[in-house]
Amino acid sequence: MMIDRDGIALPGTPERQLLDELRPDRMPRHVAIIMDGNGRWAKARNLSRIQGHRAGAQAVRTTLETVSRLDIEAITLYAFSTENWKRPKLEIRALWGLLKEFIDSQLDTFKKNNLRFGTIGDLERLDPSVRKYLDRARQATRDCTGTLVKIALNYSGRHELSRVLREAVANAGQGRLKPDEIDEDWINRHLDTAGTPDPDLLIRTSGEQRVSNFLLWQIAYSEIYFTEVLWPDFGVTELLEAIQSYQQRNRRFGGLDPENLTGTEPHGGTSV
Ligand code: FPP
User: Fold this and answer.
1) pLDDT value at position 135?
2) Atom 10 in ligand 1: which residue has the minimum CA distance?
3) Does residue 245's CB lie within 6 angstroms of at least one atom of ligand 1?
4) What is the Cα–Cα distance from 94 to 48, expressed in whole angstroms?
5) Does residue 36 have an active-site annotation?
6) Which of 132, 144, 206, 230 is most buried by its number of CB atoms within 10 A?
7) Rounded to the nearest whole angstrom, what is the distance from the C-alpha of residue 92 to the centroid of ligand 1?
C-alpha cells in the first residue's frame, strides 16, 4: 500500500492531519458509494437539478483522485439505478450527457493515474452512443493496474440477482449445471462484480439511511457509513472521515472478537 500523502493533502493542513491518523494497514480494499443529494444541493442554491448533477460529477472526479492516491483497490459508484428511468426525460438525458462528458474529460486522467474503468449493471437498455463511450473508456484503460473504478449504470441488486438466477436455471435446464453446484462461490462468479472483493465500506450521502437496491448480495458484511453531507459537497475531508470511521469499527463477520475467543466469555454467541 503506497499512499501519495502530499498528493492528497499538504503538510500542516487539517486534511493532512486526518490522513496521518489513518492506518495504512487497515484501509478498505473496496469502497462503494451511493451518491445522493445532488437535487437538494441545487435547490438550496436556486439552481436546476441538472446543475446539481454537474456539481456531483465534479465530486466524482475529486473522489477518484483521492482513492487512487490512497491506493484503494476498487470503488463502485451508483450513478444510475434501474429505477432512475422514472425521472423526467430531460434529467435522464442530462445524466447520460454528463457521463459522456465525464469520460471525454477524464480519460487522460484515468490513464495518468493508472485507473481502470468498468461498469456494472444492465447495459442493454442504454443508448448505443453511451455504450460506445463506455467501450472506449474500458479499452483505453484495460492495462491500468491501479484502482478499479466501476460505475453502476442501469443497475439494481434485485435486477442483477434475477439475471443470475435466470442464468442458473437456463444452465441447469441444458444439463450444464447441477443444483448442488449452485453455491455462494458460483453466485459470486456470475454477479456483475465477479472478481472484485465485496465492498468493505458502503457510503451513502445526504442523510438518507437506506441501501436502495445497491449491491444487495455483496454488502452482506460491509460497514455502512451514512453522512448528512450532500454528494456535491463530499470532498477529500469527507472521504477521509468515512475511512476513519470504518477503521474504528470492529469487524467480526459473524465470529467473535479475538479476545473473546480465549474461553473467558460464557455467552458470546450472537455477534454479527
Ligand atoms: C442522486 O441525487 C444522484 C443521482 C441519481 C445521480 C448521480 C450522478 C452524478 C453524481 C453525476 C454524474 C455521474 C458520473 C459518474 C459522471 P438526487 O438527484 O437523487 O438528489 P436529491 O435526492 O437531493 O433529489
Assistant:
1) 98
2) 56
3) no
4) 11
5) yes
6) 230
7) 10
Query: Can you name the residues that pair with 117 across neighbouring β-strands?
Result: 149
**How many Å apart are CA 146 and CA 124, to the nearest integer?**
28
For residue 115 the three cell numbers come to 485507473
pLDDT-based confidence at residue 269 (cuts at 50, 70, 90): very low
Using a 10 angstrom Cβ sphere, with 0-12 exposed, 13-18 middle and 19 or more buried, the burial of residue 91 is middle
What is the CATH class of 28-156+198-247? Answer: alpha beta
Q: Is the pLDDT of residue 264 over 70?
A: no
Domain edges within the chain: 28-156+198-247
Task: Return the bridge partners of 80, or none.
Answer: 153
Give the pLDDT confidence score for residue 263 in this predicted structure.
Answer: 52
C-alpha closest to that of 244 among 219, 227, 221: 227
Cell of 148: 478499479
Question: From CA 22, how far away is CA 33, in angstroms rounded?
Answer: 20
199-202 LR contacts (CB < 8 Å, sep 24+): 199/28, 199/30, 199/31, 199/32, 199/76, 200/28, 200/29, 200/30, 200/31, 200/246, 201/28, 201/30, 201/31, 201/32, 201/225, 201/242, 201/243, 201/246, 202/31, 202/32, 202/33, 202/34
The predicted structure's pLDDT at residue 117:
98
Mean pLDDT of 58-67: 98
- In tens, the pLDDT along 174-206 reads 999 999 999 999 999 999 999 999 999 999 999
CB atoms within 10 A of CB 129: 9
46 CB-near residues (< 8 Å, 6+ apart): none
Reported pTM: 0.94
Give residues with Cβ within 8 angstroms of 185, minimum separation 6. Answer: none
Atom index in ligand 1 nearest the CA of residue 232 equals: 10
